[in-house]
Design goal:
The structure is a homotetramer. With about 130 residues, chain A is α+β, with helices and mostly antiparallel strands. Chain A has three helices and eight strands.
């Protein structure tokens, strides 16, 4: 779980958070989730493994304001053979302000080509433990 | 339809567009769509009308690179009593690289309170003409 | 002092941090500096006080990469009658990667007009203690 | 010269442009300046040439608001042996709202190492013609 305080630069002239920032937080949440699993994306990249985005969505249920203290909770929600879904929930205290997900693929770069491959069993186990 | 060239600052260390930028483009597309209808959001704001985001989603089908020439096509896809859906398609030439939508509400600010209201008939007609 | 980890979305296709992010961090540093002084900018805004940017600059001395652990140190460097300068230093470990500053004004909003005014003595004392 | 309209997402809760966006525009201005010279940065990258940022600064003289029509004028202002300075001016109509610059280096990547080198004579001539 990430803790953050809504930054001035994340708001817009409507006085609330500009919604694309939720997806910035989602991406951040995914990267930190892999960190917390002991599988930093930097080390995956060095092995030629990518986790490209396939889809993303968010439902917004309450506005967020400058200086609000928020949490971003990211967890594995669905595992398929070559893809996985991460759920992200943004809260101010107990109030959910946005809930969404990302679909990502497990891809290897070989000789300059990208190829979706089966998520290795040991990664799958880590993802299930963290879901 | 908006024309743009992918900016250096919109890419990430993977060499492709950082996906939250699609939602920056969607929001931009929505604002320019209202402009093109003769209903600039600035003038709506001055009347106390807001079009807050309720949900957003995007499916990504091909990577975008620095300096790619792209188009962003935004159109009204669905009209309900108090909400509407705008579809956004991002293309490089004929290739769709991302397709998504935003759900937004029609809301008035009265005495400091926000209240979803029925989209006025004349606005609905403009939206249908532009769909 | 703020601790952060360089986010994927802060990098560009050159594989390093996109430089405008330094100014995002500077603004964040300023807001957190006021927080740490017991003078949150939110409470200033509620009193009709603004601290608008007058100028900003940064010199870059080393690249920053994805996942680098960094610190952002912000401190009051110069106090004039109606303006102040905050210095910001970004470091990865002991290495300074960027050093810059912001000039800001002390402005009150009265009847819709903005007017630069003398920084109050008690604020000046807090700024000097934190410099 | 670039034409743009201030986007909703470029504003902050103060109702004006969040200042780091000026540096996003400066970087964009530099890339488009190289484009207009017939020397797109993409083609420089393919030759192993980088133009890394060394310093950037901006003075802000008037606020910019959502939907303001602006121009960004970028031009070569100073040429040294291995570095160059680009001046950027942002205007709304005739009003300068921000004026600043970037210092950049001319660098080649050879065997994974970066080395500042003398700006080639033919590039220098193009820069002087565009200054």
């Amino acid at each position: 779980m990430l803790n953050a305080r809504v930054r001035w630069g994340e708001t817009d002239a409507g006085g609330i958070v500009f919604y694309p920032n939720y997806f910035h937080w989602f991406d951040w949440g995914t990267h930190e989730l892999f960190h917390s699993m002991g599988l930093p994306i930097q080390s995956l990249l060095e092995q030629g493994i990518l986790t490209p985005i396939l889809g993303a969505a968010c439902d917004f249920s309450a506005p967020l304001y400058y200086d609000d203290d928020i949490t971003i909770t990211s967890s594995f929600a669905e595992l398929k053979t070559k893809t996985f879904r991460i759920e992200h929930v943004v809260r101010r205290g107990d109030v959910v302000t946005g809930r969404g997900h990302e679909w990502r693929g497990w891809v290897v770069r070989e000789n300059g080509n990208l190829r979706a491959v089966t998520i290795p069993e040991e990664v799958r186990r880590l993802m299930q433990a963290d879901g």
